[in-house]
Fold this protein.
Amino acid sequence: MSFSSQAKTEICREFPAKKCCAVAESYGILLYANTFSASLIRVITESDALCARLPKLFRRVFGASFDVVPGEGKTGKRSFRITDPEKIGRIFAAFGYDPARTVSHHINLGMLEGDCDKVAFLRGAFLAGGSVTDPSRRYHLELVTGHASVCREVHALLLEMGFDPHDSRRGANSITYFKKRSAIEDILTTMGAPVSAMEIMQTSVEKDMANAMNRLTNCDMANADKVTDAAFAQLEAIRSIERGPGLDTLPPVLQDTALLRIANPSCSLSDLAQLASPPVTKSCMNHRLRKLLEYAVPLREES
């Protein structure tokens, strides 16, 4: 099951207790359905939960059944259709529309006076025309409708509810979408999918932890490369001195440092400082190794 289907299944677990919420939810479904016209109402969905919910919802709100329903056992995209003019007229009238005069749909805000009605409308819009991307891939929730005016009005409705949506076009469709993780969590929780919202939050925490571990690993690898490069340069300098005047020409302290580095080619600066006899500070060991590099410079130039 996709993450989007999972969220819709969670939303459908609770059936609207109040008639006004059932009406508002069916309103959202119709305005975000595949077709809502004077000659045809068609809802297409892949959600098993919505397939089970639709007939019950329409009987309660409109006292109407679908003229065409998917066959039992069907999966994938399934279509529910109403073609009976009398049923369509009854449904249009429920929202203050006249099938003979309606050219383009607008939201009748009188149907969404209560806060619960707004939430129920949003829930219906998501069930019929919405999707949410798996958070392990990216953060994206969208509502898609074929009615541009409805998209603009839903944008205003969401602003009124405290959300900050974005709009775009995709072909003939108008899209309201969210990209921020926190906004998607909030809207899913509002619509009745808190478990899905928590999964997004958990995935975000896991992503942050993985990114932190990667940064630490990369930092450790970079530090290890620095230690290796520095040790290689120091050993090359010591070999130049050996091939030239010899280590015995060095001051005793630097001679001991050179031998210590030869014996411990992979040790870090801190470890070398502790291995010195007597132990010295990291700064002191760094100073001695720099002196060795300086001794080797003229020898390399000569060679």
User: Anything to note?
Assistant: The CA atoms of residues 109 and 201 lie 33 Å apart. The first strand starts at residue 35 and ends at 36. The beta strands are 35-36, 41-45, 78-82, 130-132, 141-145, 166-170, 173-178. The mean pLDDT is 90.
